[in-house]
Amino acid sequence: MVASDIVRLIGKPVPRYTSYPTAPHFHAGIREADYGAWLESLPRSADLSLYMHIPFCDSLCWFCGCHTRITRRYEPVGLYLGGLIREIRMAAEKVPDRAAVSHIHWGGGSPTMLSPDDIRRLGTATREVFALKPGCEFAVEIDPRGLDQARIDALAGIGLTRVSLGVQDFDPEVQWAINREQSFEETQRVAEAFRAHGVSSLNIDAIYGLPHQNEARLLATLDKVVSLDPDRIALFGYAHVPWMKKHQEMIPPESLPGIEERFVQAESAARFLIAAGYVRVGIDHFAKPADALAVAARRGALRRNFQGYTVDPADALIGFGASAISSLPNGYTQNEPTTGRYLALISEGKLPIARGVALNEEDRLRRAVIESLMCRMEMDERILAQSTAPEAVKGEIRAEMDQFRDEARRGWVIRTRDGLIVTEAGRPFLRLIAARFDAYLAQAAGRHSVAV
Predict the structure, then answer these.
(1) What is the mean pLDDT of residues 145-151?
(2) Residue 445 above 60 pLDDT?
(3) Burial class, 420, CB count within 10 angstroms (exposed 0-12 / middle 13-18 / buried 19+)
(4) Worst-scoring range by mean pLDDT, 7-11, 180-184, 348-352, 354-358?
(5) pLDDT tens digits along 153-202
(6) Strand pairing partners for 162?
(7) Which in 58, 196, 301, 386 has the greatest CB count within 10 A?
(8) 280-312 residue pLDDT tens
(9) Domain match, 368 and 315 both
(10) Is residue 346 situated within a structural domain?
(11) What φ, ψ does residue 207 adopt, rounded to 5°?
(12) What does the pLDDT look like over 359-394, one tens digit per residue?
């Protein structure tokens, strides 16, 4: 049993903190001119990360929280790709010539909706306008269902180094409830096909908290996941937000595990994966001890961005495609989310910025504090000392560090002379702990998923 006061805490809606300020606080006051100026002001030798968003699927998974569009025809996909490549070229013109790319990520939707020719077309177009560093990591989110050899060959041919296979859950009843039927055998076939091509890293995504899911079913899925020998496993909590994603209304609330059961699932899964030889990284990632993610966690070099935990050291993340978000030293921008409007802006020769937020010194300091907690499970006075934020803001943060008496009593945190340390017992509650330093949260608390 989980204590009732803990159940109330973990049922609170808080952000996942893949950015700060978080996306609900982006606004329409940031436009194309701001984004263009921010790109032009990047350091001449900036280290870049590129994200390409392919917002198409051929069927709708009812659990999905992404910006995506369902189509059975290829014509809109091909049309969209032309706009995406044009956006890449327009943005590249504003980036300093000596900037180079250390990381590329394709997400969606389903990037594997692209035809083999268009996979090669997008890969070639990127290399034509951006310089790639030696050893540049190139990761793609893969839907194994129906993935043919031609697409696998095309992805391997353009330098793919890491695949992220979506699994979610292998239980037939759970799959039926989320409208995603996917066999273990098909998933295994795709994993083996990429490995045969020499793709060196395999990630698998799974989800807890799904309809009709229980502890036993989740562990049975993870047992099959582990048998595929992935280098990393991401175990996310299902975010049921039907007020934002209407299709989630297809999932009856009564079919979902309660808050206490979600917590039990998450912690049982963590114990299972640790026993299987994986290292727990942050709140929802697991990696083999020799994997770069686990190594970065041990060295205190772990980072967090819109794809979750990463070893990506980039100074800037540039997002391309409808709804894509960019993270730049000056702030965040988000592209127009609807594909029609996105393509219309591109055809007019405009960078398709819909909203964003400029960072002030308080934002930068609080972002550093939150990322330190989420990635290193600690924060200390050095973060405050290195910041140019007003002394009054630093005083507020010191006062906030002194307000963890209940968490200290529970053994979740230790207040030291130099800062705050989150214990292993406090790891499941990292989002709640980080949220205490979020100056914006009260303005949009209801727009996030529950804490665990």
Answers:
(1) 95
(2) no
(3) buried
(4) 7-11
(5) 999 999 999 999 999 999 999 999 999 999 999 999 999 999 999 998 99
(6) 139, 201
(7) 58
(8) 999 999 999 999 999 999 999 999 998 889 998
(9) no
(10) no
(11) -135, 140
(12) 999 999 999 999 999 999 999 999 999 999 999 999
Q: Sheet with 100-108: list strands edge to edge.
A: 279-281, 285-287, 232-237, 201-208, 162-168, 131-142, 100-108, 47-54, 316-320, 325-328, 331-335, 353-358
| 257 in a structural domain | yes
CATH number of the CATH domain containing 405: 1.10.10.920
Amino acid, res. 68? T
The answer on 368 and 277 residing in a single domain is: no
CATH number for 221: 3.80.30.20
Contact (CB, 8 A) for 452 and 428: yes
Q: Tokens 């912690």 correspond to what residue?
A: 267
Residue 380 is assigned to a structural domain of this protein: yes
Range of the domain at 375: 360-442
* Strand, helix or coil for residue 213: coil
pLDDT of amino acid 313? 83
Please report where in the chains the tokens 């996105």 appear, as a residue.
342
C-alpha of 347 from chain center: 29
* pLDDT band, residue 68 (cuts 50/70/90): confident
307 and 373 inside one domain: no
